[in-house]
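Re: LLP structure - here you go.
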Amino acid sequence: MDHFLYKNGTLHAEDVPLPDIAAQVGTPFYVYSTATLERHYQLFTEALSPLPHLVCFAIKSLSNIAVLKVLGDLGAGMDVVSGGEYRRAKAAGVPGSRIVFSGVGKTREEMRLALEGGVRQFNVESEPELRALSEVAASMGATAPIALRINPDVDAKTHEKIATGKKDNKFGIPIDRARAVYAEAARLPGIDVVGIDVHIGSQLTALEPFELAFTKVAELTETLRGDGHNIRRLDLGGGLGIPYTRSNEAPPLPLDYGAMIKRTVGHLGCEIEIEPGRLISGNAGLLVSSVIYVKQGEGRDFLIVDAAMNDLARPSMYGAHHDIVPVVEPAPATAAQEFDVVGPVCETGDTFARHRPLTPLSEGDLVAFRSAGAYGAVMASEYNTRPLIPEVLVKGDQFAVIRARPSFDEILNRDTIPTWM
Ligand code: LLP
C-alpha cells in the first residue's frame, strides 16, 4: 500500500497534486511519501514485536538525509556499506549505537571512521577483513563489536545480479568455515564477538529461502554457544520483495516474514536485527517525467520521456519492470495504446518498457514510474551530462525539495583543465 492515489482525476503524493510539484521543480524528479516510509517501517517493528529488535534501514536503497531522518526519528537503525553512507546516517542524527556497518570491502579508513563516531557492530565478511579490523581497533585502543556474515549456501531464487547467499557469490564466510573463523575472532585483540549476520539476496518473493537460511543460523548459534561464544544478536539482513505490478504479484507480507523469524530463531533469546531497504523505500517513491515526443516508428510508437536510464537504471540493468501511469487519470474505458517508453540517452538500452499498454499520451503530459523509491535516485548518474534530478519529500499537503537539481555550472566546474594545456 502507498499514498500515491488519484484524487479528482489527478495523481497525488499524499495530499499534493503532482502537477504542482512539476510546475515548481520541473521534470524529471523523484518524489517520496513520508506517510508511506513511516508505515512500512512500522510494519516491520510490529511484525518483530515482542522480540527485542532493531530495524536497520538499508541506506543503499534510498540515502537522502531527509528520508533517513524520517526513519531515524522513529527509532530506526541504519545499515550502511560505506564511509559515505555512515556519514549520511550521522548527518541524519542517527547515533552510532544504531548503525550497523556491512559490506565486503571496508577499508581501514572506514573502520576508523566508524570506531571514532560509534558503531553498533561491523558485519565482517572475511578473515582478512577481521584481521584488519582487529589491527585498527587495537591501534586505537578501541573494541570493535562484530558479527560474522556467514554465507549459508542458499538459493534466494531472485535475479542473479542480486542473489548473495550462494557459495559462489563474493559475500560472507562459508558456513562450513564459520566455527574456525569465530575461534580466531575470539582470540584477536580489539574484537568483541556479538552475533551472526546473514543476507541472502534482494527482491525475494518467497519466504522459503529465508527460512532455510535462518534455520541454519539458529543451528550455528547453538554450535557457537557450545564453543563458548556469547552470541546475543542475529542480523538477518534485508531482501523482502515488493510488488512491482499492481495485478499479479503478492510477495509475502512483513507480518508473515516476522512470524517466520519468530519460528526459526525466536527461541534463542537473541536481539534480532533486520536490514530492509526496498520494502521500506520502494513503493514510497515515484519518478515523475514528462513526454517530450511521441514518435511513430516501424510497427511501434515510441514515447520519448525526459527521464532516462541514468535517472532510473533498473530497467536497463536488470530488465526490471516499473508500472508507468499517466498523472492525469484517463477517462474510464479509454482504449489503451501500446508504446515503447524510452529516454533521450543515446543507447538502445535506454528503454523503460516495450509494448506497454498505456492510454494515449501526447507532448508535455506527465507520467509517473511507480516503485521507484528504492534503487532509483541512489543509482543515478550524470551519463550524457544529464544533471542528477531533484528529490522531493511530501508530508500531508506540504512538499520540499530535499536535493536540488545542480546547475550546469556546478557540473562543468567539477572538471579541471591541466595547467600544461
Ligand atoms: N543488507 C545487505 C547486506 C544488502 O546487501 C542489501 C541489498 C540489503 C540489506 C537490502 O536489501 P533489500 O531489502 O533492499 O532487498 N540495485 C538492486 C538491488 C541491490 C541490493 C543490494 N543489497 C535493484 O535495484 O534491484
